[in-house]
Amino acid sequence: MSDGPILLVEDNPDDVLFTIRAFAKNHIRNEIVVASDGEQALRLLLPGEGQPLHPALILLDIKLPKVDGLEVLRAIRDDERTSSLPVVVLTTSSEERDIVESYRLGANSFVRKPVVFEEFVEAANVLGVYWLLVNQPAPPARNG
Amino acid sequence: MKARASQKLMTVGHEQLMALIDHTSAVIYMRDADGRYLLVNREYERLFKLRREDIVGLTDHDLFAEDIADDFRANDLRAFARGFPVQMEEQAPSDDGLRTYVTVKFPLTDATGRSYAVCGISTDITERKHAEEEVRRLNNELEQRVRERTAELEVSTRELDAFAYSVSHDLRAPLRSVEGFSQILIEDFGDTLAEEARQYLGRIQANVARMAQMIDDLLNLSRATRVELRREHTDITALAGEVVAELRGREPDRSPGIVIPDGLVAQGDPHLIRLVLQNLIGNAWKFTVHNPDAAIRLAHEQRDGVDVYSVQDNGAGFDMRFAHKLFDPFQRLHSATDFEGTGIGLAIVHRIVTRHGGQIRAESAPGEGATFRFSLAPAPAGWVL
């Protein structure tokens, strides 16, 4: 099992609470690091100095303050330190253009947050099992 | 016979020919190589208020303004130079301003082949010109108006797009919170809550789910309106099969008899037509729930060359008195306790069918099932499904 942290990029504190709860209910004990906007997410992943966060999974909302999710995704894919990290777009939208654009920019998966909490718990379970257990991640990119 | 007829024609004299050219509404005249008048017809006299005996020997420069006379002369010379009839538009003054003529000019040649005069026949086309200009002006105006309306429509479509996007995002988020916290209350504090309180929480959740469904349906309705319509080969049989498989997956304990004929196809937008089938077959599925011998039948027929598809069920049906309300958003003909639904599905269906240029019609009676017929292409004028 990948035991790296999960980076949750989410500005809605309720959703943060639900996501943490949903993973806990599924006994996924990976640390969940929260970035509440796109800029903060990029500072964690691609810091100017210091140790970058190397998450086992990134859960990325699209509609975010400052730098939106799709821009974060573009930056992640553009930098070799983060280009192969698994990114699951986890968002309220089911607009076709968001789905198309997410995949075009290299999202690994697109999940619409269900309204019903129990369905969300189930989605978190599937995501956790697949991305942290079943999936074989790329080895970390060597820097410099 | 023929020979005799031409013989007679040959003997027609000057008088008769003059009578002929005098009784036409065209302006007819003959000028020599120097532009001096040899002959004009009565229409010419009437038009320019001149008598033919006064004109003979004069040139256009004696009769008309210089620029007009120059034009006439240049056209005469063209006919001379060419040696065969030439056609052109000319303008000549009249009491109510310049009038436009279409003129044929041809040279007259003597026995040696030398051109010695030019004949002109001018027909007044001023009215036609005005009409043409009017048509052109109206066309331009119409095109301008279409351009303006298209631009307006594009703006409103963009606004609708932004609105729908915002609805899909911003309206669902608080709903998730209401749902989520209701669930957390039940999970974490269920033991200490009175049974009644837990029931209320359940009702909150049921309503949230209903509202979420409404938002999704509204989004589908708006999407059915704003997505660009593609017209391609669409396999209706396959789409209907997928829809039925989904329904069976969702309610595996139900097994209504379903007939989907092989080889049903249409020209249309597969994504949108899928929504049509999803709603119509979904409705049939829903309204046959109380019938132990539930049957749903998809069919196709041609009516006056128009492809008509139908979805028929033997479910609850509805009263035809309310049929006119059927396709309006949020209209429901059954209470929420009998059958759940948001009342948007048929509005989506109607929107999609209309966008394809088709028609839709429902037939039903309470307790006797319902049949929805629809077409997906424009029908001949006056055709009604």
Structure description:
The complex is a heterodimer of chains A (about 140) and B (about 375). With about 140 residues, chain A is α/β, with parallel strands linked by helices. Chain A has one domain: Response regulator (Rossmann fold, 3-Layer(aba) Sandwich), CATH 3.40.50. Helix content of chain A is about 40%, strand content about 15%. Chain A has five helices and five strands, in the order βαβαβαβαβα. Chain A has helices at about 15-25, 40-45, 70-80, 95-105, 115-135, and strands at about 5-10, 30-35, 55-60, 85-90, 110. Chain A has a five-stranded parallel β-sheet, sandwiched between helices. In chain A, helix 1 (about 15-25) packs across helix 5 (about 115-135) and helix 2 runs parallel beside helix 3. Chain A is globular. Chain B has about 375 residues and is of the alpha+beta class. Chain B has three domains: about 1-125, PAS domain (Beta-Lactamase), CATH 3.30.450.20; about 125-225, Helix Hairpins (Orthogonal Bundle); about 230-385, Heat Shock Protein 90, CATH 3.30.565. Chain B is about 50% helix and about 20% strand. Chain B contains eleven helices and twelve strands. In chain B, the strands form three sheets. A five-stranded antiparallel β-sheet of chain B has the order 2-1-5-4-3, sandwiched between helices. Chain B has a five-stranded mixed β-sheet with strand order 7-9-10-12-11. A two-stranded antiparallel sheet of chain B has the order 6-8. In chain B, strand 11 (about 360-365) and strand 12 (about 370-375) form a beta hairpin. In chain B, helix 7 runs antiparallel to helix 8, helix 9 packs across helix 10 (about 270-285) and helix 10 runs antiparallel to helix 11 (about 345-355). Chain B is elongated. The two termini of chain B are about 65 Å apart. The model of chain B has no long low-confidence stretch (mean pLDDT about 90). The interface of A and B includes residues 93 and 114 of A.
